[in-house]
Amino acid sequence: MQSRTLKGLVVLSLVAILMTGCGSGGLSFGKTVTIPMIYGSEKEAWLVPLVQAFNAEKHKTEGGAVIVVEATAMGSIESGDRIVEGLLEPLPVVWSPASSAYVPVTNVEWRKTHAEDLVVGTPNDLVLSPVVIAMWQPMAETLGWPGEPIGWTDIAEMATSVDGWSGYGYPEWGDFKLGHTHPNFSNSGIISVIAEAYAGAGKQRDLTMADLDTPEVISFMSAVESSIIHYGESTGFFADRMFQGGPSYLSAAVLYENLVVEEMTRQLNGTGQQLPVVAIYPKEGTFWSNHPYIILNAPWVTEEQKEAAAVFQDYLLAEPQQRKAIAYGFRPADPAIPLSSPLDIQHGVDPMQPQTVLEVPSAEVVVGIQALWQQQAKKPVDLVVVMDISGSMKGDKINAARASLRDFINLLDDRDRLQVILFSDELVTLTPLSSLGEKREEVLRRVSGIMEQGDTRLYDAVQMAYGELEANGDPQHIRAIVTLTDGNDTASQMTLDQLMGSVGNLSEGGNATKVFTIAFGDNADEGVLQRIAESTGAKQYNSDPQTIHDVYAEIATFF
User: Fold this and answer.
1) Dist CA 315 CA 542 (whole Å)
2) Which of 152, 267, 298, 523 has CA 20 to 30 A from 29's CA?
C-alpha cells in the first residue's frame, strides 16, 4: 500500500514539474511559434545578431512555446506592396520598414479588400536615423558647411547652374551630381521627393494636392531631379557606389545618417579610400527614418504569434539592445539613452540635428507626389537594349527573353527614349533611339517576333550601342545600356580590351553611360560581363528563363 502511495506521489510530482515548466498554458512538449519578420535592410548589421541571440536564448510565450524569429531584409515600399498583395512566403507577422512614411498608403491599399487597417495605431520605433544629404566635406565646405545651413534650394541652384562647381572656383569637380533611390520602390526615394515638394511649396506641414499643381512645386522638383545620375532600388547600393566611386561619380546622395557614420568609421580606421563625407540636414526640414515595429493586423496572424512578436519587441527595446544600436550609427528609440561616439562630428554627423522635421503627408498626397515625379519631374532615360539572339538562345531562353523584354519596355515612361539592337553574327537595329511613347505598340509587336540564329558578336554590339548614345544621346538624360547574353563572344571584330578602353572611360564620372549586363544562363562569361558593368558604374546580374523578369524589373528601378 505504501509503495503504491509513493509511486502516485512521484507521478503527481513529475506532472507538477512539467506543468510549472510549461507555464499557465499547460504541456508544450517542445512546441515552437515562428515569427516571420520583414525588415528594411538598413538596420541589418544591428538586427541580425540580435535575432540570433534572441533565438539562442529560447524565449517563450506564456503557454511555453519557444519563440523563433525568422527575419528577411526587403525594400520598404516593395515589402508593403507585397504584403498587401499576399505575395510573400511565408506571410510575415512583423513588418519593420525603414520609416512610417509609406504606411498610410499601405493602409489605404489594404482597406480596398479588408475591413480594418493593416497597421493599427502608432507602432513603436526600434531605432532612429535622420534622412540626410551625404556630401563630400570639401564640397559641403564650398557651399558654406558647417556655418551656413544648406538645403534643397541650394541643391536646386547647383543642379540648374550652367557653371556647376566652376562657379565656386572648382572646375575640376565638373557638374553637380546627385543620387537618390526610386520613389516607387525605396523609402529614401519617396522621402526625397516628398521633401522636394515641401521645399517647392515653402511648407513644413499641411502639404495638399493643390500644392502639387502649382508651377513652383513642379519646377522646383524638376530642377532638383535634373542633377540625378540615375535612380535605384537600394539606399545601400547608392552608398556603396558613392563611397567606391568618389566625388567624380556622385557629389551627393540622399542617404541615412547611419550610412555616413559607417563610411567615416571606415575612414577613421584606415580602411576608407575617399575624402571625408558629412551629413547635410536640409534647412527646409527632413524626416526620421524611424524603423517602426509593426505587428500586422492581418488574418493570418494568430494571437499566439502576436504575443510572441510582442516579446521580441520588448527584447529589442530593452536598454542593452538599444545601446548596441549606437555602435552602428543609429540613435536609440529611447531618448533617455545618451548619444555617444560614433554619433559625433568626427564621424561627419551632428547629434543636435535635425532642427526641423517635416510632417508625413496624407496617403493621397504621397501618391500624388509619386505621380507628379513620374509624369513630370523624373529625369528621362536614353536607353539602348542590346539582346543576344544567337543560335544558343533557342527554346525557353528566347521565349523568356522576348516576354521579359516586353514587360521591361512597359515599365518605361513615354518620355523615355529607347533603342533596341539585336546581335548574333549580325547587328540589327530593331528600333532607333527615339521617344518611346510614339512607338511603344510597334516596338512591342517587333519584339514579339524576335528569332534566334547565328554566332555571338557581343563586344561589337555593346560598342555600337555606346557609340549611338555618345552620338545621339541627350546629355540632360540618364544614358544607359542593358545587355543580355547567354554565351561568350565568338565573332566580334574588336577585342574585350578595346571595348573596355571605350566604355570604361569614366571621364564624365556619374554622368557617364552605364552598361548593365545580364548573364543569361550558365554559359555566359560572368567575369567579362561584371568587368564591363562595374567599369561604367553599373551592375552585373545573373539570370535564367525563370528569373529574367525579376532582373529586368530591378534594372528598371535605375530609370
Assistant:
1) 39
2) 298
Does residue 263 share a domain with residue 139? yes
Instruction: Domain of residue 489: give its range.
Output: 380-556
Phi, psi for residue 470 in degrees, rounded to 5: -65, -40
Q: Which three cell numbers stand for residue 266?
A: 571606415
Query: Phi and psi for 34 in degrees, rounded to 5?
Result: -95, 135
**What does the alpha-carbon distance between residue 274 and residue 290 come to, in Å, rounded to a whole number?**
29
507-549 pLDDT, tens digit each: 567 888 999 999 999 999 999 999 999 989 899 999 999 999 9
Spatial neighbors of 511 by CB under 8 A, at least 6 apart, are: 175, 177, 229, 475, 479
Helix (H, G, I), strand (E, B) or coil at 358: coil
- Coil, strand, or helix at residue 112? coil
Answer yes or no: do 371 and 440 share one domain. no
pLDDT tens digits along 336-356 = 999 999 999 999 999 999 999
Burial-class residue 114 by CB neighbours within 10 Å (0-12, 13-18, 19+). Answer: middle
CB 459 within 8 A of CB 366: no
DSSP summary character for residue 449: T
**Contact indicator for 406, 442 with CB cutoff of 8 Å:** no
DSSP secondary structure of 231-284: --S-HHHHHHHHHHH-TTT-SEEEEEHHHHHHHHHHHHTT---S--EEEE--TT
What would the 3-class secondary structure string for 174-228 be? CCCCEECCCCCCCHHHHHHHHHHHHHHHCCCCCCCHHHHCCHHHHHHHHHHHCCE
Whether residue 75 sits in one domain with residue 60:
yes
Given a contact cutoff of 8 angstroms between Cβ atoms, the answer to whether 381 and 478 are in contact is yes
Grid cell, residue 525, equals 562569361
Peptide bond into 338 cis (omega under 30): no
Q: What distance in Å separates the CA atoms of residue 536 and residue 541, rounded to the nearest whole number?
A: 14
**Dist. CA 16–CA 435, nearest whole Å:** 77
Return the SS3 of 104.
helix
SS3 at position 132: strand
Prediction pTM value? 0.90
